Amino acid sequence: MTQLFRSLIFVPGNNPRFLEKAKTLNADIVCFDLEDSVPDDQKANARKQIKQALKSKKSYASSVFVRTNSPTSGKIPMDLKEIVQRGVDGIVIPKVNNVKEMKKIEKVLSKLEKARKIKPIQVIPSIESSEGVVNTYEIASFGKRISAVVFGVFDLLNDLGVEYTKNSEGAKYSRRKIPVDAHAAGVAVIDAIWQDLKDSKGLEKDCKIGKSLGYSGKSVIHPDQISVVHRLFHPNKGEIQWAEKVCKVYPEFVKKGKGAITIDGKMIDEVHYKQAKALLELVK
C-alpha cells in the first residue's frame, strides 16, 4: 500500500470493539497499540486480538501498523513474534533512544520475515526521550525500512522533568529539531498528539505550527480529530511540484534500468515514487 503520513491514530489492542470500529476510520494509518493503552496483564491478550484483526486486513480502509512495547521493556521479541505476518503494513517502535536498540530490533524482525516469507515491513521509530532527540538523525537514517519518525511529547517532558502545559517551553527545541533531522535523513515525520479533545481551535493552531515546522502529519487519539488534521496537512504547492517532478523523472530512469536516482540533490527510489503518486492522487 502506498503510504501517506497525515494522520496516525492509536487503537488499544486489547479492545475488540475498537479494533472492529477501526475498519471504518479514514486515518492514513491505524495503529493497533500494545504499549501505553494496554495494562501489563493484558499484553498477551492484546497480541492475540491484534493477530486476529490482521487476518481481516482487507476490511480496513487505512494502512495498518502496530505499536510494540519499548526497547527497554524486553517485550519486543514477543510482540514481533505474534504480529509479524501478512497484513501488517508497518510497526511503530516507541521510546527509541539510539541505533543500538534499532539493530537488535532489526535482527529479530529480519529473522521473522525470512522465516515467514514476507516482504520487509516499514518501521516508524518514536522519539520520546532526550537521548532520542539527540540521536534522531542516526535513528531516522538507520535503514530503508524506516519510512518516518514520530514525536512523542509527553514521555519527553517526563524525561526532562517538565510539567506539560499547552504552551510548554520544554519541548519546543525538540519539536523543531526532530523534523530537521528527519528531512535530512529523507523520511517523513509525524507530530505529537493534541490531548485536549474539547479544544478544536487549539488543535487547528497546533497543526498549523507543526506543518510550519516541517511535519508531514500528526498523531491523533480520537476519530473526530482526523478531518481537522487532514485539512490542515493537505499538501502545499511546493510538495505538489516536487511530487510532479518525481513522477515525471523517475519512470524515465527506471526504463534505463536504474532503481534509484538523484533529483535536486536528494536520493529517490521506488518508495519515494509511490509516495509522490499517492500525494498527487490525494490532490486530485
Task: Explain what the structure shows.
- With 284 residues, this protein is of the alpha/beta class.
- The protein has 2 domains: 228 residues, TIM Barrel (Alpha-Beta Barrel); 50 residues, no CATH class.
- 45% of the residues lie in helices and 15% in strands.
- The protein contains 12 helices and 10 strands.
- It is globular, with a radius of gyration of 18 Å.
- The chain starts with 6 loop residues before the first strand and ends with a helix.
Summarize this entry quickly.
This protein is an alpha/beta fold and 284 residues long.
Strand-helix topology:
Elements: E1 7-12, H1 16-21, E2 29-33, H2 43-54, E3 63-67, H3 76-83, E4 90-93, H4 99-116, E5 122-127, H5 130-134, H6 136-140, E6 148-151, H7 153-160, H8 172-185, E7 188-191, H9 200-212, E8 217-220, H10 226-232, H11 237-255, E9 261-263, E10 266-268, H12 270-283
Parallel strand pairs: 1-2, 1-8, 2-3, 3-4, 4-5, 5-6, 6-7, 7-8
Antiparallel strand pairs: 9-10
Helix pairs in contact: 3-4, 11-12
The helical percent reads 40-55%
> Treating each run of at least 4 consecutive H or I residues as one helix, how many helices?
12
The computed structural class is alpha/beta
According to CATH, the fold-level topology of the largest domain is TIM Barrel
Low-confidence stretches: none
Q: What's the CATH class label of the largest domain? A: Alpha Beta
Based on the coordinates given, report the CATH architecture of the largest domain. Answer: Alpha-Beta Barrel
Which geometry do the CA atoms define?
globular
- CATH level-four homologous superfamily name of the largest domain: Phosphoenolpyruvate-binding domains
Order of strands across the main sheet = 1-2-3-4-5-6-7-8
- What is the domain tally? 2
End-to-end gap: 18 Å
- What would you report as the Rg, rounded to the nearest angstrom? 18 Å
Mean pLDDT: 92
Q: Please report the total strand number as a whole number.
A: 10
Largest sheet: 8 strands, parallel, barrel
N-to-C SSE string, H for helix and E for strand: EHEHEHEHEHHEHHEHEHHEEH
**Approximate strand percentage:** 15-25%
